[in-house]
From TrEMBL:
<dbReference type="GO" id="GO:0071555">
    <property type="term" value="P:cell wall organization"/>
</dbReference>
<dbReference type="GO" id="GO:0030288">
    <property type="term" value="C:outer membrane-bounded periplasmic space"/>
</dbReference>
<keyword id="KW-0574">Periplasm</keyword>
<dbReference type="InterPro" id="IPR016148">
    <property type="entry name" value="Pili_assmbl_chaperone_C"/>
</dbReference>
<dbReference type="Pfam" id="PF00345">
    <property type="entry name" value="PapD_N"/>
</dbReference>
<dbReference type="Pfam" id="PF02753">
    <property type="entry name" value="PapD_C"/>
</dbReference>
<feature type="signal peptide">
    <location>
        <begin position="1"/>
        <end position="23"/>
    </location>
</feature>
<protein>
    <recommendedName>
        <fullName>Pilus assembly protein</fullName>
    </recommendedName>
</protein>
<keyword id="KW-0732">Signal</keyword>
<dbReference type="InterPro" id="IPR001829">
    <property type="entry name" value="Pili_assmbl_chaperone_bac"/>
</dbReference>
<dbReference type="InterPro" id="IPR008962">
    <property type="entry name" value="PapD-like_sf"/>
</dbReference>
<comment type="similarity">
    <text>Belongs to the periplasmic pilus chaperone family.</text>
</comment>
<feature type="domain" description="Pili assembly chaperone C-terminal">
    <location>
        <begin position="167"/>
        <end position="229"/>
    </location>
</feature>
<dbReference type="InterPro" id="IPR016147">
    <property type="entry name" value="Pili_assmbl_chaperone_N"/>
</dbReference>
<dbReference type="InterPro" id="IPR013783">
    <property type="entry name" value="Ig-like_fold"/>
</dbReference>
<dbReference type="InterPro" id="IPR050643">
    <property type="entry name" value="Periplasmic_pilus_chap"/>
</dbReference>
<keyword id="KW-0143">Chaperone</keyword>
C-alpha cells in the first residue's frame, strides 16, 4: 500500500510539473533564413500567457566545445520584458564578415522564457527554452533551396547485413529530410526521421537485409523554408538516383 501511494504521488507530481512547464511563448516560424542581400532578419515572439515574463535570446553554433567561438550575428533585444498577451520582434543583424560566401551556414536561435518570480515558498519555476534553426544564405548561390532536395543523390551500396543507403548533397544548401523509407517485396526499412545534410555532405545509413534484386522504392520528406514537409519518391538500386515530387 505504501509503495502504491508513493508511486501515485510521483505520478501526480510529474503531471503537475509538466503542466507548469508549458511554454507561454510562441514563435512566428520554425526556422529563420537570413538572405545575404538583406540587412537583417526577424522573428516575432508572442506571450500567450496571463503573466509578464522576460525573454532572453541568443545564437549558438551547436558545436560541442565551441561555445566561445564568435558568431557574426547579434540578436536584439537580447533580453526583453513582455507583458501578458503581448508581442516582441527579435531582429538579427549580420556583422558583415566571417562566413563562407559559397554555401549556406547554419546556427541555432535560442529563445528562453524566464517567468516572473513567484510569491510564496517551495515553488518550482523553470526557464523554458525553444531552439530553431537559423540559416545564413549568401547571395549568388547556384540553384535554389527549393530545388535542392531533388538534386541530392541516393544509391544502395552493398547487400544483406552490409547494405547501406548512400546520400550525397552536392548543393550549396542544407537539406532537412524526414521519414526516409525503402520498401519492395517483403522488405521494408524502418523510417528514418529528421536529419540534415550540410552542403557537400555524404551520409551512409545502415540498411541491413536490403537487396537490389527486389524492385525497391524510396520515399522521403523534405522540410522547406516555411517549415512545410514536401513528399518525394523514386525507384532505387545501386545506381545514383534523385527524388521526384509526389503529386498531391
Amino acid at each position: 500500500m505504501l509503495l502504491a501511494s508513493v508511486n501515485k504521488a510521483v505520478v501526480l507530481f510529474t503531471l503537475l510539473l509538466c503542466s507548469q512547464a508549458q511554454a507561454s511563448i510562441i514563435l512566428s516560424s520554425t526556422r529563420v533564413v537570413f538572405e545575404g542581400n538583406k540587412k537583417e532578419a526577424s522573428i516575432t515572439v508572442r506571450n500567450m500567457g496571463s503573466d509578464e515574463i522576460l525573454v532572453q535570446s541568443w545564437l549558438d553554433n551547436n558545436t560541442p566545445g565551441a561555445t566561445s567561438a564568435p558568431i557574426p550575428f547579434a540578436v536584439t533585444p537580447p533580453l526583453a520584458h513582455m507583458a501578458a498577451q503581448s508581442r516582441q520582434t527579435l531582429r538579427i543583424l549580420f556583422k558583415g564578415a566571417g562566413l563562407p560566401t559559397d554555401k549556406e551556414s547554419v546556427f541555432w536561435l535560442n529563445v528562453q522564457e524566464i517567468p516572473k518570480t513567484a510569491e510564496g515558498e517551495n515553488i518550482l519555476q523553470l526557464a523554458i527554452r525553444q531552439r530553431i534553426k537559423f540559416f545564413y544564405r549568401p547571395t549568388g548561390l547556384p540553384g535554389t533551396a527549393k530545388e535542392a532536395p531533388e538534386v541530392v543523390t541516393w544509391a544502395i551500396e552493398g547487400q544483406g547485413k552490409a547494405g547501406s543507403l548512400v546520400i550525397k548533397n552536392p548543393t550549396a544548401y542544407h537539406v532537412t529530410l524526414s521519414d526516409v523509407q525503402i520498401k519492395g517485396g517483403t522488405y521494408s526499412s524502418p523510417p528514418i526521421t529528421n536529419f540534415m545534410l550540410a552542403p557537400g555532405e555524404t551520409k551512409h545509413l545502415n540498411l541491413p537485409g536490403v537487396s537490389t534484386a527486389n524492385a525497391l522504392t524510396l520515399t522521403a520528406g523534405s522540410i522547406d523554408d516555411f517549415g512545410a514537409k514536401n513528399l518525394y519518391s523514386t525507384p532505387i538500386n545501386s545506381t545514383l538516383t534523385q527524388l521526384k515530387p509526389l503529386k498531391p
